[in-house]
Amino acid sequence: MLSFLARRLGLLIPTFLGVTLLTFALIRLIPGDPVEVMMGERRLDPQAHAEAMHRLGLDRPLHEQYLSYLGQLARGDLGQSLRTHESVWSEFASLFPATVELAGAALLLASVLGLLAGVVAALKRGTPLDHGTMGLALTGYSMPIFWWALILIMFFSVQLGWTPVSGRLDLLYDVEPVTGFMLIDTLLSDERGAFLDALRHLILPAIVLGTIPLAVIARMTRSAMLEVLREDYLRAARARGLSPARLVFVHALRNALVPVLTVFGLQVGSLLSGAVLTETLFSWPGIGKWLIEAIGARDYPVVQNGILLIAALVVLVNVVVDILYGLANPRIRHRQ
Amino acid sequence: MSLLEIDNLSVRYGPADAPPVVDGLDLRLETGEVLAIVGESGSGKSQAMLALLGLVDPPGRVAADRLHFAGHDLLALGERQRRRLLGKELAMVFQDPLAALDPSYRVGFQLEEVLRQHLGLRGAAARRRALDLLEQVEIPAAASRLDAYPHQLSGGMAQRVAIALAIAAEPRLLIADEPTTALDVTIQAQILELLLNLQRERGMALLLISHDLAVVAECARRVCVMYAGQAVEVGALPGLFDAPAHPYTEALLAALPEAGTARRPLRGLPGSVPGRHDRPAGCLLAPRCAYVQDDCRARRPPLDAKRQSRARCFHPRNQETP
């Protein structure tokens, strides 16, 4: 187990090098620079521009800039935002809970409904219920997120007025940020109704963000279940007179969960990339919206290190999933 | 009343006019009896057993004039009542023991699951009984095996666990579907001996499915020979093997190497079992039979229930004595 962990964590270094190189190059490929964006292109005095660029060290050759960036990272320094002069780490840390809350709600929704839909479709294989569920899943998978979000906002927020259009909490409420998770903070506060309001703010973005993972998990669960249902050990378990509920949930689903778990890990990556879009659409104050704004402002340190932190997160989650995979499947756990 | 009464059992897949995979099987089994069913693969013996347990899934269809076990009409049984019977009164051991155990759960868990389901045993009592069962199937270091996962067991060991699972609730009938086929030759004899010991000690009936005539001759008192979904000969042992009435039984025996006799070339049966779509109109064996006559091709012979040794043949062998 330890050597497995060491191997996986050792892979982090080349992964991180690749990510830094990519973000460093890509953000500089976009026309414009931070000074231009800050000062406004039209009224920019070339003299002042050059001075500002010099002050930020952005006039040095690219390879020097990159090496000094790596040196900074090696010292554990993630730098400061060019706009706010706050440290990138503290900005990230204060916004991250909002994204985790959104992504967590989306993943919860996707796993509960996805597993359920997959199990039902597999058990009712070939029936209209199966075709209907899987057709819906395919539709959900193919739907553009921004369009889906706009449809939901138009219908539920604008037409029916059931949910708010944007944000995490109504301005009426004054909630002390303790954990950064709005659902928890509202419960801790004395504000009546704040929790329900936070929930109403969360539901649409969570549905939007969870739709693609839901579809993927549903399809994966169905095919894994169909495979397991054909297995001899399930027929043997039936021959022992076990109840249908035990057959499905204790024996079939447990074994079907092994391949589905891998999908979970992969979905975390797509959840975070989906969060960028979803947060922007719903004005959700998380790291996705933060990154989009940083790109607009050419805030190099925020873009580079924000993406680096997200990459680290995705890699870590997948390591955790690999460990869980071993726990879920005794045949892997005991292979030494 | 016999323990198991099967009249005219058939199992069909596909359209109604398609030839059934089990075709009018009649069988009686008494309490504590050992009966063997022999036949090539595809002869319908496993399907017949699955039909008995109610495990033939759609599109498969089961029909019978009578399918009674211990006074229960298996065809009229509700799902809930059937589950109370399966694994308790009527248990089955499958061919591939490693595939028949759930890979995700420890041996102890799977044993305790059955004990809870059928005997209501929980906690320490279930644990003790599980250990007891592993000892009864002669697993060495039984206590440590309770915590083993199936993939940590050898084939023979896994089959012992599967047998322990089957006998956990003391069934009155144990069906063993080719229980030794997937095992090493050296282990096969041990497993058979274990099954026969358990059968004797508990007085349970044993239905042994096999294609190994040597195994059958050693274990069973009565045998049912199946060919292409039909029982072609049913009778007592060793008489039936000494003087087989049906040409198919004779051919099976002729294909068996015998120890101690002069070396002779083994005789196989030419051709293969007719598939579902090329059934002959008359006797199903007619295209392969060495003694075939015109009436064999025209009509299908019935299985005569009145004679002592019954064979589905117009011209049975070894019938010199009146």
TrEMBL record, chain A:
Lineage, highest ranks first: Bacteria, Pseudomonadati, Pseudomonadota, Gammaproteobacteria, Pseudomonadales
Subcellular location: Cell membrane
Residue stretches making up the ABC transmembrane type-1 domain: 96-325
UniProt keyword Nuclease, yes or no: no
Protein family: Belongs to the binding-protein-dependent transport system permease family. OppBC subfamily.
PANTHER family: DIPEPTIDE TRANSPORT SYSTEM PERMEASE PROTEIN DPPB-RELATED
Keywords, sorted A to Z: Cell membrane, Membrane, Transmembrane, Transmembrane helix, Transport
Membrane topology: Multi-pass membrane protein
One GO term describing the cellular component: plasma membrane
CDD domains associated with the record: TM_PBP2
TM region positions: 9-30, 102-123, 135-162, 198-218, 256-277, 307-328
Annotated protein name in UniProt: Dipeptide transport system permease protein
Pfam families assigned to the protein according to its UniProt record, in alphabetical order: BPD_transp_1, BPD_transp_1_N
Superkingdom as given in the UniProt entry: Bacteria
Main location: membrane
GO molecular function: dipeptide transmembrane transporter activity
SUPFAM superfamilies, alphabetized: MetI-like (SSF161098)
From TrEMBL, chain B:
EC number: 7.4.2.9
Bilayer topology: Peripheral membrane protein
GO cellular component terms listed in the entry, alphabetical order: plasma membrane
Molecular function, one GO term: ATP binding
Transmembrane segments: none
Keywords noted in UniProt: ATP-binding, Cell membrane, Membrane, Nucleotide-binding, Transport
Catalytic activity field: a dipeptide(out) + ATP + H2O = a dipeptide(in) + ADP + phosphate + H(+)
Catalytic EC class: translocase
Localization (cell): Cell inner membrane
UniProt domain ABC transporter: residue ranges: 4-253
InterPro entries in the cross-refs: AAA+_ATPase, ABC_Ni/Peptide_Import, ABC_transporter-like_ATP-bd, ABC_transporter-like_CS, Oligopep_ABC_C, P-loop_NTPase
Single GO biological process annotation from the record: transmembrane transport
Gene3D superfamilies the UniProt entry points to: P-loop containing nucleotide triphosphate hydrolases (3.40.50.300)
Quaternary structure (record): The complex is composed of two ATP-binding proteins (DppD and DppF), two transmembrane proteins (DppB and DppC) and a solute-binding protein (DppA1-A5). Five orthologous SBPs (DppA1-A5) are present in P.aeruginosa, which increases the substrate specificity of the DppBCDF transporter.
Family: Belongs to the ABC transporter superfamily.
Functional summary from the UniProt entry: Part of the ABC transporter DppABCDF involved in the uptake of various di/tripeptides. Is also involved in the uptake of phaseolotoxin, a toxic tripeptide inhibiting the enzyme ornithine carbamoyltransferase. Responsible for energy coupling to the transport system.
Protein name stated in the entry: ABC-type dipeptide transporter
Lineage, opening ranks: Bacteria, Pseudomonadati, Pseudomonadota, Gammaproteobacteria, Pseudomonadales
